[in-house]
Amino acid sequence: MVIKESTGEKVFKVFNYSFLTSLGFLTFYPFFYVLILSLNDGFDSLKGGLYFWPRELTLQNYIKAFEDPLILNAFSISIFRTVVGTFLCVLLTALAGYALARKDLPGRGIITFFFFFTTIFSGGLIPFFILLRSLRLTSSIWIYVLPYLYQFFNIIIMRTYFQTIPNEIRESAVIDGCGELKMFFKIFFPLSLPMIATITLFYGVGHWNDWFVGAFFVADKNLKPAATILQKILSETNFEQATDTNRMNFNINRAKTTPEALRMAFLMITTLPILCVYPFLQKYFIKGIMIGSIKG
User: Fold this and answer.
1) DSSP labels for 136-174?
2) Global pTM value
3) CB-CB contact of 250 with 262 (8 Å)
4) Percent of the chain at pLDDT exceeding 90
5) Domain spans of the chain?
């Protein structure tokens, strides 16, 4: 039996689809506009009138952006901190969440309160910097990893998710002689892949986009991540002043590219990796965040 739609339902559907399409276009267009500027000849872009496609297509902006070895080094720093930092953060967060999900854990309430208490109060930036310097992390790449190995919010999400797994599974594993580590890696970890994907996305995006640590805690230009360099480039109104400040010798060929075009190219380079990863994790992200936040 086919149910016919009323005139009001048809009007609402047309309005709803039109509104959502318009909203999606308005959300996507700024990113698309940056892509157009990055693929267009720099001096031609100064004329204006670019809206939907490049007028003079070129890859010169991207070539120039990668000519300076400092840029390649910055991306290697970002890749290292994102891969290593995300792996360690996810592993420790999952282990902590698994332990706190055990109701028979000795001192469970005290441990949870300790984690929670440290998220309320902070010593401030200056004491934090002094601590990092005393640990000799300000001159090491591990400054991007070790101080940020866990977040209490993500631990709570993992704990909540582990609590949704039936206790009968644990009892069966114990009867079969399964130890805690084997139980975690062989049973609970595979069952929690949606939540693992969710916090992986949280940590990965956080590590890749973080510019603050490199800007304020690291003085060595060879330890600056890509996000820090991008932030400094975008914050300078005069490109020559920015290159002098960061000691970056782009050797711009002014017949082919401009500072603004280089900014757009570098912005695309730092944004695309996350955009390429997110579609593969979106399904798990939505499922994981819903389960981790609703079920208790």
Assistant:
1) T-TTSGGGGTGGGS--HHHHHHHHHHHHTS-HHHHHHHH
2) 0.73
3) yes
4) 10
5) 65-294
